[in-house]
Amino acid sequence: MSTVPIVLKTEGLVKKFGGITATQDVNLSIAQGARHALIGPNGAGKTTLVNLMTGVLEPTEGRITLEGVDITRMAPEQRVQRGLVRTFQINQLFASMTPLETLAMVVSQQQGLGGRWWQPLGANRKVVERCEQLLSLFRLTEVMNQRTEVLAYGKRRLLEMAIALACEPRVLLLDEPVAGVPAGEREELLHTVAALPADVSVMLIEHDMDLVFDFATRITVLVNGAVLTEGTPQEIAKDPQVKSVYLGHGEELTHG
Amino acid sequence: MLTLLFDGIAYGMLLFILAVGLSVTMGLMNFINLAHGAFAMVGGYLTVVLMQRYGVPFLLCLPIAFVGAGLLGAVLERTLYRPMYKKPHLDQVLFSIGLAFMTVAATDYFMGSQQQIMQLPEGLRGRTELWTGGPFELGMGHYRLFIIAVCAALTLGLQYILAKTRFGSRLRASVDDSRVAAGLGINVNVVFAATFAVGSGLAGLGGALGAEVLGLDPTFPLKFMVYFLIVVAVGGTSSITGPLLAALLLGVADVAGKYYVPKLGAFIVYSLMLVILMWRPQGLFVRKGGKS
Amino acid sequence: MKAMQDSLLVPSRFKAWEPLLWLVAFAAPWVVPGHALIVNEIAIVALFALSLDLILGYAGVVSLGHAAFFGFGAYTAALFAKLVMPDPLTGLLVGMAGATVLGAVCSLTILRGSDLTRLMVTLGMALILLELANKLDWLTGGSDGLQGVVMGPVLGRFEFDLMGQTAAWYSLSVLLGLFVLARRWVHSPLGATLKALRDNPLRAMAIGINVQLRLAVVYTVAAGVAGTAGALLAQTSGFASLDVFALDRSADVMLMLVIGGVGWLYGGVLGAVVFKLLHDVISGITPQYWTFWIGLFLVVLVLVGRDRLLKPWSWFGKPKAQGESV
Question: Structural domain boundaries of chain B?
Fold first, then answer.
């Protein structure tokens, strides 16, 4: 029996804000090539966990390892350079730049050209080719020359994801990628999420249970900052504890 | 040496009254108002004009200065400042510098560019010397004593309003998070307007009080703006004890610096500020959990 | 693919009117020699404004103390000419180098904190330097200023003449040279990461950009350019005085940039021209109340918004780099 390597692991992760414990002793492992989902009621601490993993927040206790390397004290930008990339629940984009410029900038940065000051942004063919691919993949080609601030919300959400992918992630953390996206545009986004390369390990935070059950092979349930349980979608769907947590909040955990 | 401390405290308390409005405005509306000194100047000139041309007694001028500057603040807040709250900081800086320039030039035009002489009432002149000749010699100018007393009373009054009244709790809620406060039914606009008016009024009062000590001429807003900003930057904007302590620190440091090392002058104050801001960019006295 | 590449490259290519503009600028000292001194002044402040644009327009750092580097460059170059050697270009490089080093040191101060903190820290720095220059009067001449800076000929051939023509061409050349470099800089991948940093520092960090390092780098470079402008001033006017550090200078240059437009490089040049002309015209009419009109202008400008107020300037087809701000 082959064991799939673990790419991202947290051990005993704790985060306290003054008197409030937002994250309680979380042990989470994401396997290579995983399609892992993190679910839980509002306020469970899912985004806090992502912030801890990416370095936006410093843990009070615990350890985080990325592909075997201890990244607990590592600066956020260094984690990105090692392949740990995230998207934000609320779009974090560059208002004055167009999608083309944004992606060209990110790809250049990713390919190590971010420090070059003597060459114009569009000069490198490989960069432009990669941008072409990404724009096409995320259906952004028609709007590529419009400033981000004038784009429709759905397009912005696509750009949000495109930026993350332009970083060539090895581990991708998606924070509610379809939140607020109109039903018609969810398809585009879902399709692209499903089409992610198999060697990219993905952890998805989502409330939409259809998406979760379509996408995930493994689910972790987070309640009040602690892991309630973990398992396959079938196990989670049948778990009475999980049901009560969700039914208690007025949500139904159903899937065909 | 005690005299220096005394003078420094008087100076510091004056700075506090002058700057507290700026600090609260900054924390409440997230608005950098570089024209704050103009309100102080208005209070000062109002006092001088009333005293010299209409013979109004000094003590009466003080509340008039407060009300006058406060009214001006209320009017300007409603008309000019309100559209500026949402704008980027750069715009706010430019806007308020523009206002400051306009007031400076207008004052120069109407009142002339010379220093205004303030005639203090008899009771406030003079000096009391204690423990003369000893190491703890204390020379207290009566006017400075008066300043300390008035400012201390105002400070206590402010603390009381903030801590014990409903307006105070509305204000504190709005400072912490104005969106949530509005959601709770607090009329944030009224809170803003009232706070701005009171802050400007206090500045006016400070200008009137301080005219004798700090001098009063059309360049007042620009000259002292730096000091007000130091008080706010170092003291933080989430409390009033922060700016109070910062102002006292600044007052004492400035007075002591100018006495002991006159060669270095204001250098000490600026360097101190730089060091403090580098060590704690949010200011020295930020309340934990408050907005910085 | 080609179309896409073109879209990216278009902003970096020289527009037709650009060489024309520079031609006119260089012809001016020859065509109207009586105004050569003004042309020199404008070139110097344009360079200063350009340096501020690098941090304000392209990296979002609000500074009220940029004159610190201008002044430091001025005094360094002046002292170098007096104490070491009067060659202009060497002095220029020394002034630039000095200001760059100061910029690198000061960049540590602007890395953290809010806009207000940055404002105070930059202001404080300039004021400290002002005080230092004032107190170290054995070196700097104190409030009298550093007099008697006599410069040698540029490149060993072009003497500084009384009309100011050599000075004007000298400054214009330096301006053009640095402008071209700055242009490359802002249109490069590095420039794009700086724009990203300005727009959204959180996301910039989340895509692998070392925000603090980039900020420090751009601040250092901007300081060097500002110092070069200061050095030019000292060299072409023959002295350096305390007002090179004054708040006025920092405020004026910010004003120029705002008038001309933040974030498109030519804003500094345009602003410098307009500001100087306005200043001369208005000071001619009401010498004391220049402050009032400039204040009024600022207030109206911010309230109304650049676009509606300054329609004629949008003929140049400048790209609006900043969303809501002026």
Answer: 2-220
